[in-house]
Structure formats: structure tokens, C-alpha cells
């Protein structure tokens, strides 16, 4: 058996994040010598999901403030409010907290590639249900203050029909907009917006469709825009994706979420496929140095890269795929504040099935439009806040509890704002005569995504940008994986029949895929 | 379904494929010969029954063979008291313990409270006797065995229906089995079987909510369930609720709106609705369809239902009329109100022809009741109709002449 340094590696992949793991899946039938390493002792890199113990350890390692080290995560902190009687935390492995949870629209290219590569069977997908808007409590002097509440966002004609909160004329305006979006990419709709594609969507909704503030907030939530300032072009595309995804895999839902921790499951499936295809996996091992000097290349033109691993071994490879160096301080860098909380209630009212015969959702999305949350110092939230609520059906926590993932763009007060949003959310889901659920565990941290969004190929080295900080999976990622695959397979004989991510079942298993 | 629009495969068969197909044909012919031979000899025993299963699985359109199977089942009933065996034990399908039909997730109408008891007595008899033939209690055993036969026959048709959903002979056999169940089983047991059938219909409508065959079949099943031979209770209220659920799921469901319109007179009768109740019911239906038209004015199904309500107001009071005691003035007021509401839609939906057509129909309707006031925008509505749908100019000319007579 050849040792690592004796093997002529076709591809060395550094990091087991989503893109790298999908690349491993794409290469799993190629017969190439693939070495896939990750300096962490877990799979998934920035998309990983942790047990409580792993989360504590991870937080310890990522405690530093963002300015000190250029890393994706910073300022991590775990808080465990004093245990409350018997209803406390369960054992650590009963939890699987996702670092960067994303929902996946049913139309997404990710799902169709998982199907065509036959990898989808290893992932269990759960339905993502209603999107809600947080309504702050109103407390005018003339009436008793009302509870804060959540109101469901209508996204289909039947939703609008059933809503009792929208006035008659406003319903018609909303319907006009929804019909417009469904055909937004065709004439004559394009005439209405193409010239204004770069303008803020929120203004377009007011001027072209006369949507009132409430409906504008509803529509903006469907875009999941982080800064609330998404452009007309990008915004219409996002809403179109949401609406055309509705009902694709079954009544009542437009997106899915992988059980047991989201994208980390998909990453693990990709790595597993890679391993079955012969790739060698090494966790706890990183790439420390890459030599591609002319001298080295002359030694063996077929294997231009000399790579040193953190375990002291040096290897030779044809190509290397690695995460791009993070450049902080760049103008386009995005930074999110995150707060993950384990809550002692199943919040079942939020996870009700949309209609008879629809699957019970496991994820719900709640948006807090800008300005509805304020710190005690009366500073109100500048950007939207999003809360992804995951029920125990996701496998991320035991029954009777939920995980709430809050995020908002980083500002000096964003951490406090998220804390306030969490308590407002819990107030909103509690009836006036019930006890408010308690928070059992909190993990807060900052996450930064670098400014590059494209794959950079420099000779034999391919740099992959980090996953974008979107709340819904961005199909551009699939293009990145394809670009990396093209780069590492370019030296192969051009063969028109090479299939990308299209495989047959290995053992000729019966194809029983059934999405109804 | 799966068979529409698929071109025939005209590629040449390989020699292998040809041989294989010849084998299939000869096995089929041999089966067919055996079955017909047995029938000629009037042998309707277990072997024949087994053979019909095999043959029908290959060709469910062979209705003569379904008839032979029927004779086997009936002769099984006739022969049981003497030898205790029944076709169900020989059949290729489920085990004797009641296998639930692939139907009952959907909400079922209430059945009589006695039914659960009969289930218990099936699996473990009161005094511990199970399915062994017990000469001392023939009457209870025979209907239990009959139930097994019916369940197993219904079960037999299911995979065939999945493959050949439009084959009338399979449906006929299913209906025959269900009707046999009414003849041979105690009412409460037969009711349960038919309720499961309604569950099957629910599943079909969930998959294809506008399949009018399924809706027609639903009406038939509900009708039987309501008859004195079965539960004998009206299902009009739960059916009304079902139509509400279906339109909430999809406003365009014409079949659901139609079903609703059929149920209304009976529901009102059963509720023993007073004049006031009836008036309120009419108002709530008008409000319902108005809400729907508000978000879906381009949907013809909704306008049909609106038209149904208007006709109900215009026609001379009869058993189908929702609020027969309304005075002529009151009816005119309702229709004029509708004209106002529909005109309101024009503020936001200027180019939908149904709106203009509905306005003209309502104007004609109210004139039938003696109201001679002509709306001022009548000519512009007609003009709009001609613009939006020039192909039907003949029809619009017709309407114009009707209007001229006002």
C-alpha cells in the first residue's frame, strides 16, 4: 500500500465545507486519486453542526474579537442561564446546532444535482413552513397595550384570500404584484423594471404597485434581504424563486431543510460519496505550505505542486482546491452577528401545517423589519433581523424544545439587538395566560464572509470563496463547484460524454424516489 | 395520465426481445385457455379463482374473466357452510387479519359508535375463539369471512387501478364488491367498508382535486352512505365543509364550487333554517364569492358560482331557492349591490372580460325583476367586451339586443 508521499495525487482538497464536499461528490466516480483534508476534527468547516460540547469547544477557539485575526468566525460566547428546575438542557449529543443554517428552495440547483448524482437518498429533507413578520406590541394611551405577535406572510392567491388582516383594495394590489412577479422575466413585465433594476425594491413596490408599509414589509421578507436594501433586479428574482418553488415537492411549502444540521449533512454526504469513490480523508490535518516554483515543477511536470501537511508529511499533487484567503476590511465584506438559542418550548403554533395534507414544517422564518427592535438606549435596529426557528423534528434538539437562530448585519449594537429580538420573539409566541418559554443556552458570534464571490484559478491552485452569508441557499455556489471541477479536470482528454453530477446507483438499487 | 401523449415505440425489436414477447404471449394464451375451459365446465372453484387473478393482472380489460371471478366468489359464499374454506384464504393477497385499505388518512365522516366493537370481535372472539370454523356459531362466522373476502377483493383491485386507472371493468368490479358488502354484511360493518371507500376518494381528490370522475364517484359513495341500507345519516354538512376546504386549497376548483351549489338546498332544509337564517346564509355565500373574486377575478369558476347565486335570486322561488321568502324589492337590492361591488373591481382590474360580462348579466337579471333603470356605463361595458373578446362579437350583439329591450 502506497504511503501518502508516494501517491501521485490528482486533486488535493483542503477543507470539508459545502463547496469542497460537493466537489468530492462530483469527483467520486472519476477514478482520480483524491486526498481530502480538513484542519478541524469535524466535517463541514463553516457549515458544520455541533453538539453542545463541540459548540463549547468551538466557541473557546473562536473567542477573539474580529479585528485580531482574519478568520470567518469571531467573538464567540456561550451563555447558559441558570438551570430552571427539571426543564433544563438535555445531554450534549441531543443537540446539533448549525453554525450557518440555510433553507434550500425546492427549485434550487443543489437539489436537482443531489438527485442526478443519486446522493439525495442519504439526506432527509424537511419542509420549511410559513414566513412571519413580527408585529411589535402597540401601546397607545387610549387602549391597553396588545401583545407583540407574529403574522403570516401570504405568498399564494389562496393565502391572500384567507387573510383577514389585509383590506380589500390592498389585497388587489398585492395580487397584481404577485402575478407580475410570476412573469417578471418576460415581456411586457420587463419593460416595467429592467431600466430600474439597480434601484431599491422597496421604493419600486411603493411607486409601481402602491403597496402600503405593511405589505412592503411582507414582500421584502420573502427576499430575505440582509440589509433591507435589495435591488429591484435581485429582489424580483428572489421572490420569483420563492413563488415558483411553492408546491413543487408537495402542497404548502417552498423550501426544505436537511435534517440533523442543515448543510453539514449535505457536506457529509458529499465526503462519504468521495470516500466510497476512493478518496482518502484526513481530519485534523491542514495544508501548511504550497510550493509551485519553476524548480519544483521541473522535477515532475505532471505534478507541479509540492504540498506540506500539518502532520509533517510532504506530498505531490496535480491540483489543489482550497478556501480563498479571507480578506477583511474589503468594501464588499459582509459581517453578520448571530445568536443561537435553545428554548424550552416546542412553539408548536409556529410549526402548523399550511393546509390539510401538507407536511408539518420543521422550520419557520420570522422577520423583524428595520426599526421594530430597540436597545434600552432607544437605538432602534437599522437592519432587518431574521430568526429561523427549528423544531425538534430537525433533530437539532430534543422534543419539547426548539432552536432559534437569529442574525442581523453587524453594528456596534447588533449583539444587544439580537438579545432583545429573542425576548420579543418569545413574548410574541406566548399566550397572555401562559408562561413564557425559558432560554436554556445561548451561543453568540460574528461571522464574516470575504468580498470575493468567484472561483480564482492560479495555475494548479483553485481558490474557493466562502459560502455567501445568505439565509437561503444561493445557486451561484453550484456554479463555483462546477468551476472548480472544470479546473481540476481540464487536463483530461476532452470527452463530450463526460457527465457532471450525473451518476447511476452503485449497486443497481431500485430507484424508489418519491417526492409526494 | 401516464399514457397520454407518449408515442408508440416503433424501433425494431431485437431477436431476443421478439423471443421474449412470444413467450409472454404463449403464457397468456395458455392461461386464457385454462380459464375458459374451467368456465365451460362450470368449475368455479379455488383453482379457477387463482387463475383469474393471474389473467386479470395481465389484462384487466377482459371483462368475461371478471365475470368468471364473480361467479367464483359467489360460489365460495354458497359452498362455505359445508367445507369452511373460502376463496380469501387461497387468494394471493393480504393475510386474514384486517389489512387497512390504503385510504384512511383523510378525515372520515362519523360512523356509528358500534363499529369499533365489531373490529374487536373479528380479531379475537369474545370467548377466545379465532378464525377456526366453529360449527356452533355459523351466522357470525359467515359474515366475518365474507368481510375478509370483500376486503381482499378490494385490495386486489388497488394495484390494478394504480396501473390502469381508467379501466371501467376494474371500477365495476370494485363497485360490485362494495354492493355485495351491503347485501351480505350487517349494516354497521358494510358502512365501515364504504367509509373507507370515501377515504379512498379523498386520497384521489387530494392528488387531483379537479378530477370530475372522482367528484361524481364521491357523490355516489356519499349517497350510498346516506341510504337506509348503510349509516342512514345525512352527510350534507361534512360535505359542505369539505368543499370549503377544497376551495381554500385552490380557488379555481370548479368541481368543488359545483358540489357546494348542489349541497346548499339540502343543508338548509336539514338545518330547518328559518327565513332569517336563509337570508344570512345567502349573504355569507355572496360575501365568500366576493372575497374570492377580489383576488381571482380572472377565474371563470368563481364567476360561475357568482352566476349561480344571482340565478338563485332571480328565479321564481322553488325547492332549490336559498331564500325563497325574499320580496321582489329585496332581491333587486341584492343584485344592485352586486353590480356596485363588481364595478368596484374595475378600479383595479380594467381588462378582465368576465367582469364586464357579469355586470351586463346582473343588469339583465335585475331588469327581469322589473327594474328598468339602465346603468350609465352600460355602453362602455359593452364596448369593452367587444375590445377584449372580438371573437365573440356575435354573443355581445345578442346581449346588446337583450339590453335594448329594457
Automatic annotation (TrEMBL), chain A:
Q: Which GO BP terms, alphabetically?
A: small GTPase-mediated signal transduction; vesicle-mediated transport
Which Gene Ontology molecular-function terms are recorded?
Answer: GDP-dissociation inhibitor activity; transferase activity
- Membrane-crossing residues? none
UniProt entry keywords in alphabetical sequence:
Transferase
Q: Which SUPFAM superfamilies match?
A: FAD/NAD(P)-binding domain
Q: Which Pfam families does this chain map to? A: GDI
InterPro entries for the chain:
FAD/NAD-bd_sf, GDP_dissociation_inhibitor, Mrs6
The question of whether ATP-binding is a record keyword is answered with: no
Q: Cross-referenced Gene3D superfamilies, in alphabetical order?
A: FAD/NAD(P)-binding domain (3.50.50.60), Guanine Nucleotide Dissociation Inhibitor, domain 1 (1.10.405.10), Guanine Nucleotide Dissociation Inhibitor, domain 2 (3.30.519.10)
Q: Name one GO cellular component term.
A: cytosol
Superkingdom, according to UniProt? Answer: Eukaryota
Q: Which PANTHER family match?
A: CHM, RAB ESCORT PROTEIN 1, RAB GDP-DISSOCIATION INHIBITOR
Family per similarity comment = Belongs to the Rab GDI family.
What is the protein's name according to its record?
Answer: Rab proteins geranylgeranyltransferase
Q: Which source organism does the UniProt entry give?
A: Hapsidospora chrysogenum (strain ATCC 11550 / CBS 779.69 / DSM 880 / IAM 14645 / JCM 23072 / IMI 49137)
From TrEMBL, chain B:
Q: What class of enzyme is it?
A: transferase
Q: Which residues form a coiled coil?
A: none
Query: Which is one GO molecular function term here?
Result: Rab geranylgeranyltransferase activity
Q: Where is this region: Disordered?
A: 79-140
In the Enzyme Commission scheme, what number(s) does this protein have? 2.5.1.60
Repeat as a keyword?
A: yes
* An individual GO BP term: prenylation
Polar residues bias (residue ranges): 112-128
Q: Which catalysed reactions does the entry list for this protein? A: geranylgeranyl diphosphate + L-cysteinyl-[protein] = S-geranylgeranyl-L-cysteinyl-[protein] + diphosphate
Question: Per its UniProt entry, which superkingdom is the organism in?
Answer: Eukaryota
Low complexity: compositionally biased ranges: 81-107
Q: Which UniProt keywords apply?
A: Prenyltransferase, Repeat, Transferase
Q: Name one GO cellular component term.
A: Rab-protein geranylgeranyltransferase complex
Its biological purpose: Catalyzes the transfer of a geranyl-geranyl moiety from geranyl-geranyl pyrophosphate to cysteines occuring in specific C-terminal amino acid sequences.
Q: Which family does it belong to?
A: Belongs to the protein prenyltransferase subunit alpha family.
Q: State the name under which the record lists this protein.
A: Geranylgeranyl transferase type-2 subunit alpha
Amino acid at each position: 500500500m502506497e504511503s501518502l508521499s508516494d501517491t501521485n495525487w490528482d486533486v488535493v482538497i483542503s477543507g470539508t465545507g459545502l463547496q469542497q464536499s460537493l466537489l468530492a461528490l462530483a469527483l467520486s466516480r472519476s477514478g482520480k486519486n483524491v486526498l481530502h483534508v480538513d484542519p478541524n476534527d469535524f466535517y463541514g468547516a463553516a457549515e458544520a453542526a455541533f453538539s453542545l460540547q463541540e459548540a463549547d469547544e468551538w466557541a473557546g477557539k473562536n473567542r477573539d474579537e474580529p479585528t485580531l485575526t482574519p478568520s470567518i468566525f469571531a467573538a464567540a460566547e456561550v451563555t447558559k442561564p441558570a438551570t430552571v428546575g427539571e426543564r433544563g438542557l438535555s445531554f450534549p449529543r441531543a443537540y446539533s446546532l448549525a453554525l450557518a443554517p440555510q433553507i434550500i428552495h425546492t427549485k434550487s440547483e443543489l437539489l436537482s444535482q443531489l438527485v442526478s448524482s443519486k446522493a439525495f437518498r442519504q439526506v432527509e429533507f424537511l419542509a420549511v413552513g410559513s414566513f412571519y413578520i413580527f408585529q411589535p406590541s402597540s401601546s397607545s394611551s387610549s387602549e391597553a397595550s396588545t401583545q407583540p405577535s407574529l403574522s403570516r406572510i401570504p405568498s399564494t392567491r389562496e393565502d391572500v384570500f384567507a387573510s383577514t388582516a389585509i383590506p380589500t383594495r390592498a389585497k388587489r394590489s398585492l395580487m397584481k404584484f404577485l402575478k407580475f412577479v410570476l412573469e417578471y422575466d418576460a415581456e411586457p413585465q420587463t419593460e416595467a423594471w429592467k431600466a430600474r433594476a439597480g434601484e431599491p425594491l422597496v421604493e419600486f413596490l411603493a411607486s409601481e404597485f402602491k403597496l402600503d408599509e405593511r405589505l412592503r414589509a411582507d414582500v421584502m421578507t420573502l427576499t430575505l434581504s440582509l440589509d433591507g436594501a435589495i435591488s429591484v433586479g435581485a429582489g424580483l428574482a428572489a421572490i420569483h424563486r420563492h413563488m415558483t418553488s411553492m408546491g413543487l415537492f408537495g402542497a404548502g411549502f417552498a423550501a426544505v431543510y436537511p435534517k440533523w444540521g442543515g448543510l453539514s449533512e449535505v457536506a457529509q454526504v458529499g465526503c462519504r460519496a468521495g470516500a466510497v469513490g476512493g478518496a482518502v480523508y484526513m481530519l485534523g490535518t491542514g495544508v501548511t505550505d504550497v510550493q509551485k516554483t519553476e524548480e519544483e515543477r521541473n522535477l515532475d511536470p505532471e505534478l507541479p505542486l509540492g504540498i506540506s501537511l500539518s502532520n509533517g508529511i510532504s506530498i505531490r499533487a496535480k491540483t489543489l482546491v482550497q478556501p480563498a484567503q479571507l480578506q477583511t476590511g474589503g468594501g464588499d465584506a459582509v459581517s453578520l452577528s448571530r445568536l443561537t438559542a435553545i428554548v424550552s418550548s416546542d412553539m408548536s403554533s409556529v410549526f402548523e401545517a399550511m393546509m390539510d395534507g401538507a407536511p408539518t414544517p420543521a422550520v419557520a422564518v420570522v422577520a423583524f423589519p428595520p426599526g421594530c427592535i430597540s436597545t434600552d438606549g432607544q437605538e432602534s435596529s437599522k437592519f432587518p433581523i431574521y430568526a429561523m426557528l427549528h423544531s425538534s423534528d430537525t433533530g437539532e434538539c430534543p422534543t419539547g424544545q426548539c432552536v432559534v437562530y437569529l442574525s442581523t448585519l453587524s453594528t456596534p449594537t447588533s449583539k444587544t439587538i439580537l438579545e432583545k429580538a429573542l425576548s420579543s420573539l418569545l413574548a410574541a409566541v406566548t399566550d397572555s395566560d401562559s408562561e413564557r418559554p425559558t432560554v436554556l443556552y445561548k451561543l453568540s458570534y460574528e461571522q464574516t464572509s470575504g468580498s470575493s464571490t468567484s472561483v480564482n484559478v492560479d495555475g494548479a491552485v483553485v481558490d474557493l470563496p466562502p459560502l455567501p452569508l445568505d439565509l437561503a441557499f444561493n445557486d451561484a455556489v453550484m456554479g463555483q463547484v462546477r468551476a472548480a471541477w472544470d479546473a481540476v479536470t481540464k487536463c483530461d482528454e476532452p470527452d463530450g460524454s463526460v457527465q457532471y453530477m450525473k451518476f447511476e446507483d452503485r449497486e443497481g438499487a431500485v430507484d424508489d424516489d418519491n417526492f409526494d | 395520465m401516464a399514457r397520454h401523449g407518449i408515442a408508440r415505440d416503433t424501433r425494431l425489436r431485437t431477436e431476443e426481445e421478439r423471443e421474449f414477447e412470444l413467450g409472454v404471449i404463449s403464457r397468456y394464451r395458455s392461461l386464457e385457455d385454462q380459464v375458459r375451459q374451467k368456465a365451460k365446465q362450470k368449475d368455479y372453484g379455488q383453482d379457477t379463482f387463482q387463475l383469474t387473478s393471474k389473467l386479470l393482472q395481465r389484462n384487466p380489460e377482459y371483462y368475461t374473466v371478471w365475470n368468471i371471478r364473480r361467479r367464483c366468489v359467489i360460489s365460495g359464499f354458497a359452498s362455505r357452510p359445508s367445507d369452511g374454506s373460502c376463496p380469501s384464504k387461497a387468494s394471493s393477497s393480504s393475510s386474514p387479519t384486517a389489512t387497512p385499505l390504503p385510504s384512511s388518512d383523510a378525515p372520515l365522516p362519523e360512523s356509528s359508535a358500534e363499529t369499533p366493537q365489531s373490529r374487536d370481535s373479528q380479531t379475537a372472539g369474545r370467548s377466545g375463539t379465532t378464525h377456526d370454523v366453529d360449527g356452533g356459531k355459523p351466522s357470525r362466522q359467515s359474515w366475518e369471512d365474507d368481510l375478509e373476502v370483500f376486503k381482499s377483493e378490494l385490495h386486489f383491485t388497488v394495484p390494478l387501478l394504480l396501473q390502469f386507472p381508467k379501466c371501467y371493468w376494474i371500477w365495476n368490479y370494485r363497485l360490485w364488491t362494495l354492493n355485495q358488502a351491503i347485501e351480505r354484511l350487517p349494516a354497521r360493518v358494510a358502512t365501515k367498508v364504504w367509509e373507507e371507500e370515501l377515504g379512498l376518494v379523498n386520497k384521489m381528490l387530494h392528488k387531483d382535486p379537479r378530477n370530475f370522475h372522482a367528484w361524481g364517484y364521491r357523490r355516489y359513495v356519499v349517497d350510498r352512505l346516506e341510504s337506509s341500507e348503510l349509516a342512514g345519516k345525512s352527510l350534507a354538512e361534512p360535505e359542505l365543509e369539505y368543499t370549503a376546504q377544497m376551495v381554500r386549497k385552490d380557488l379555481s376548483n370548479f368541481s368543488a364550487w359545483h358540489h357546494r351549489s348542489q349541497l346548499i338546498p339540502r343543508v338548509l332544509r336539514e338545518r330547518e333554517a328559518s327565513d332569517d337564517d336563509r337570508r344570512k346564509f345567502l349573504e355569507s355565500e355572496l360575501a365568500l364569492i366576493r372575497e374570492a373574486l377580489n383576488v381571482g377575478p380572472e377565474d371563470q369558476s368563481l364567476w360561475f358560482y357568482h352566476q349561480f347565486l344571482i340565478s338563485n335570486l332571480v328565479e321564481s322561488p322553488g325547492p332549490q331557492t336559498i331564500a325563497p321568502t325574499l320580496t321582489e324589492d329585496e332581491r333587486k337590492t341584492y343584485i344592485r349591490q352586486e353590480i356596485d361591488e363588481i364595478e368596484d373591481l374595475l378600479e383595479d382590474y380594467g381588462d378582465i372580460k368576465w367582469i364586464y360580462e357579469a355586470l351586463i348579466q346582473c343588469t339583465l337579471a335585475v331588469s327581469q325583476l322589473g327594474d328598468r333603470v339602465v346603468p350609465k356605463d352600460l355602453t362602455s361595458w359593452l364596448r369593452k367586451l367587444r375590445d377584449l373578446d372580438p371573437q365573440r362579437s356575435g354573443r355581445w350583439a345578442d346581449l346588446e339586443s337583450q339590453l335594448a329591450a329594457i
